[in-house]
Structure formats: C-alpha cells, structure tokens
Amino acid sequence: MRIAVIPARGGSKRIPRKNVKEFAGKPMISWSIAAAQASGVFDRVIVSTDDEDVATIARQHGAEVPFMRPANLADDHTPTVPVIAHAQQWVADHWGAPSAVCCIYATAPFVRAEDLREAYELLSGSDADYVFPVTSFPFPIQRSVRLTEEGRMEMFWPEHALTRSQDLEEAYHDAGQFYWGRPEAWHGGRMLFGAGSIPLIVPRYRVQDIDTMEDWATAEAKFHALQNLG
Q1: Of 8, 47, 134, 219, which alpha carbon lies 20 to 30 A from 94's?
Q2: In this structure, are residues 157 and 193 in contact, taking their beta carbons and an 8 Å threshold?
C-alpha cells in the first residue's frame, strides 16, 4: 500500500489559515490533494491535521482524515519527519503496513502528478531512503555575502571573490513540495538531506516558497502564467 500524507495543521502565524486560504480559486490544500489523486500511485491520500475546519475541507476535496493529529505534533516547532512517522504508524496499526509513504506539503500548488510518479519510480528502482524535488539556485551561492554588525558586507567564501561564475559548482535547494520515503526511513527519523536521498531536478519556474503575503502574490502570478501557457 502506497500512501500520501499531507500535513496541514490549523495554526499559521505569517499567513493566517494558510493551508485552506483560497489560492487561484480553490483552497490551497486542494491543489496538493488533486495532484496526489491524479498521479494514480496512491492507495490512500491522507491529511494529518489538528483542525476540524481543515479536516472538513480536505474531505470535501477527496482526501481522508482518519485521525486528528495530537497537539504535541502540531506546534510551530514540530519537524516534518515525526508527523509523517505518526501518520505512517496509524496506518500500519489500522490498515496494514504501507510499502512507501509520500509527504506532500499542503502549500505546494506547483506539485505535479508527473513528478510524483517519476519520483516514485526513482525510489522503487533504487536503495535510497528518500526521493524529492530540488531546483538550482539562480545565482552562485559561493558569491553570497553576509551583513556584519557594523552594517558592512563580507563574503561567506572570500576565496571565490575572483572565481568566474562558470567555474563554480552549481548548487541546489529543496523545492518544498513533496518527499517520497521508505517506511523504515520515516520511522527511523533518517535525515532527508543526505547521501540516502536522490534528487528529482525540476525547473526554477515551478518552485516558489510561500511564507509571506508577497510570496503568495508571486506564487499566484506564476500559477496563472503557467496555466495560460497550457
């Protein structure tokens, strides 16, 4: 049994009710549910939440909410892995042990069914713990600078001050959309960002963090542009 787990707690400080706020005409979480359903790789699409309103909206859009997440896993500081491990254990106790588990973020409107399928194929054809999408930084990270206490600048890597950009190694970051993982990796709390993971490289135009209202507006503009392109 392959399951999708969409973590969607009710609290959100910077964007209130972010997981169910309307995005491009639908509750934000509905886009993740729809992608999971369209992928055809999941036997169950589950939402893990501590909020009854989130649960109701998730069910209206076709997801299952078979349990309410305990309060100790629903605060501002709870990392992703324990939330997925909890959901996985509930499924194992009530429906049988899953063979693969995919965490899909509730605020991932750019997640595609094709990417979910391709990432699952990478996981099942390897011995990796996890597979998830990454994208490249738009500027060499070796040229990044920090602000000093005196209000001046200094390079993180001053040894690359004169290195040509084409000679610098390309760097990638987590796309923040989904993570396919093996049950033993989730249960064991294995690190996502390490040698046990395989990347699925996606283009930058399909990646957008949504942490502020400015991010939200940017994401909606990107989303509509991509829809218009077909």
Answers
A1: 8
A2: no
The sign of the dihedral angle between the CA atoms of 108, 113, 118, 121 is positive
What would the pLDDT profile of 146-183 be if each residue is shown by its tens digit?
999 999 999 999 999 999 999 999 999 999 999 999 99
Tokens standing for 161? Answer: 């001050």
Average pLDDT, rounded, for the chain: 95
Catalogue all structural domains in the chain, each as residue range(s) with its CATH number: 2-136+174-225 (3.90.550.10)
How many whole angstroms from its chain centre is CA 131? 11
> What contacts 26, CB < 8 A, 6 or more positions away?
61
| Selection from 175, 171, 91 nearest residue 138 by Cα | 171
Measured between alpha carbons, how far is 67 from 47 in angstroms, rounded to an integer? 9
